[in-house]
Amino acid sequence: MQKFAEAGVSARILAALDRQKIIIPNRVQSESIPALLEGRDVVIQSPTGSGKTLAFLVPLVERIRPGSPGPRALIVAPTRELAIQVDSVFKGLDSGLRSALLYGGVGYHLQQQDLKRGVDVVIGTPGRILDMIEKRLVSLSRVEYMVLDEADQMFDAGFARDVERIMGLTYSPQTVLASATMPEWVSRMIDKHLQNPLLVKLIEEGPSLLEHGLVRTDRGVKLRVLSDILTRHRGAIVFGRTKHGVRKLNTELRRLGHKSVELQGNMAQTARDRVMESFRAQRADVLVATNVAARGLDLSHVGLVVNYDLPDTAEAMTHRVGRTARNGNTGRALTFITVEDHENWAKLRRQGAPALRTIDALALARDGGWLYLQEVAHATAPARATSQRRRRSRPWRGVRAAS
After folding, report:
1. What is the 3-state secondary structure (H, E, C) of 40-82?
2. Within 10 Å of residue 187's Cβ, how many Cβ atoms?
3. Judging by DSSP bridges, how do beta strands 121-124 and 73-76 pair with one another?
4. From CA 163, how far away is CA 143, in angstroms rounded?
5. Does residue 158 share a domain with residue 132?
C-alpha cells in the first residue's frame, strides 16, 4: 500500500489525514491497514513513535458504522495519558463516530453522560471500563473491533486479570495487539485470544536516530551532574523509580533553578493535565516522572531522556527512551549508574537492555558535546573526574525545544 486511498480509505478520512499533512502511510500502517480492513486479527510490534495508533484507528473508523447500538469498538490502554492521546488522534480523523473516553482520577458524571447518549467507540483504561460495566452503563456484547494498546503492559501482572475480564465480556471481536515489545506472556495471550493473526514486526533499519549512553557517577554528586546537564538541554524527561523519589527530585531541581514539573500516579487528573499542558507548551523545560510517562506521550520536542533511577525491567527502559527520537527526529538518552546500581544494571543487561558506552558528562554539560570515554574495568568512573579519558567526539544532534 503506497497511499491510504489504495486500501479503500474513504474520502472523508483521506481529507482528515490530508489536513494533518499525513499523505503517505509508513511501513507499519501500510502493512497493517489492508489486513485490518479485511477483518483479520493483527499483532503490531514496532518501536514507539512508529505510527501504531493510526494503523489501528484508520481501519476502525472505516469498519464501524455510526448510529447502531454500541459500542462497536473498544480500545483499552494502560494509562490515562495514553487513552487521552489515542482519543485525540481518533477525534482528528473526523469520522462522525460517537465516542466516550473513560479513565480514573476524575469524576464519573461527564463520562456517564457520554455513555447514556450512546457511543460507537469506547476508549479507556481497564479499571474505569470495568467500573462502568458494573454500573450497567456500558456493555461489551456488541464490540466488533477491539484494540489492546501497549499489550505488553496490558498483560503484565498489574493489569492481566482486568484485561482478561474485559476480553471475556466480548464475543470474538476482531482484535489488534500493539506494542513496542512482546514478552513471552504476550505471546501466550496471542495464542489464547487471537485467530490466525498477521504479525507486523518492524525492525529499525539503518543508523539509529537515538544515541544512548551511560553516565557513571557517585551518589553524592548525582543530582549536581544531572542539574548541569539539564542546564544545557531543554525539553527533557527525567525518570525516577518511585512517586516519592520523583516528588523529591522535582523539588530539588526547582531549588536549583530549573523550570521542572512532576508527573506521578498520586496526582489528581486535573493536576496531571496541567503538568502536561505546561510541558507541551514548553513553559516547563523538564518533566520529572515515574513510568507513568513511559508510554503514550507523543512529545515531538523531547530531545533528551534521562534514566536517573534504573527501571525495574529492560522493557520499561525501552519505553522510557522511546519518548525521544520519534517521528524521524534524532534524540539522546542517558542512563545514570552509581556503584550501588551495578547489580541492578547487570540484571537489566541479562533481560536484554542494550550495551551502553560511557559518555563524558562534563562535556555534555559544558557545551553539549557527546564524547565517549574509554571504559575503566571494575570502576565507577565518576562523572566529575572523567573528562580526560575520551575516545571520540560527536556534536549534539538531539531535538531541542524552541527558545
Report:
1. CCEEEECCCCCCHHHHHHHHHHHHCCCCCCCCCEEEECCCHHH
2. 12
3. parallel
4. 15
5. yes
Instruction: Please state, in angstroms and rounded to a whole number, the distance separating the CA atoms of residues 188 and 41.
Output: 15
Cut 0.85: pTM above it: no
Q: How far apart are CA 335 and CA 52, in angstroms?
A: 27
- Residues 162/130, Cβ–Cβ less than 8 Å: yes
Range of the domain at 305: 210-394
Asked which of 75-89, 112-126, 183-197, 353-367 is least confident by mean pLDDT, the reply is 183-197
Residue 27 falls inside a structural domain: yes
- At 151 the pLDDT is 80
Rg (the chain; Cα; Å): 22
Classify 361 as helix, strand or coil. Answer: helix
pLDDT value of residue 398: 37
The top-scoring range by mean pLDDT among 4-8, 236-240, 375-379 is: 236-240
Question: Which CATH number do you get for residue 223?
Answer: 3.40.50.300
Domain ends where: 201, 221, 249? 201
pLDDT digits over 21-49, tens only?
A: 888 898 899 999 999 999 999 999 887 66
In the chain, the number of structural domains is 2
Distance, C-alpha 166 to centroid of its chain: 22
The yes-or-no verdict on residue 185 having pLDDT over 80 is: no
**pLDDT category of residue 378 using cuts at 50, 70 and 90:** very low
Separation of alpha carbons 353 and 309, rounded Å: 15
Q: At what angle do helices 160-168 and 126-134 cross, to 10 degrees?
A: 50
